[in-house]
């Protein structure tokens, strides 16, 4: 299986996301992005600033973070449902050969 290639921009954005997410681990970020944990760790070593910054998320209360996480899960479910509906409609409109 050929290895995936990622753009420099994607790599740097992934590192920035990790560094600006004080409560998240490398494993969590890597899983969210669909990449290997070791790959992200290598990118952090190569492109990282060496410090995880205290962003606005660090100042939010844990209940706010939980509410945001719940909202994200809800929106992800809605996106899945809408994609399924879209696919059904595409099939219905496609001419049959």
Automatic annotation (TrEMBL):
UniProt KW keywords: Coiled coil
GO molecular function terms noted in the UniProt entry: DNA binding; transposase activity
Any coiled-coil regions, as ranges: 58-92
Signal peptide: none
A biological-process GO annotation: DNA transposition
UniProt cross-references to Pfam families, sorted A to Z: HTH_Tnp_1 (PF01527)
Lineage: superkingdom: Bacteria
Annotated protein name in UniProt: Transposase
């Amino acid at each position: 299986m050929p290895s995936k290639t990622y753009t420099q921009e994607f790599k740097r954005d992934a590192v920035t996301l990790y560094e600006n997410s004080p409560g998240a681990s490398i494993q969590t970020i890597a899983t969210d992005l669909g990449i290997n944990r070791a790959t992200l760790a290598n990118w952090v070593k190569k492109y990282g600033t060496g410090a995880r910054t205290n962003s606005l998320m660090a100042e939010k209360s844990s209940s706010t973070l939980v509410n945001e996480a719940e909202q994200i899960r809800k929106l992800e479910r809605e996106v899945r449902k809408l994609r399924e509906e879209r696919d059904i409609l595409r099939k219905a409109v496609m001419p049959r050969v």
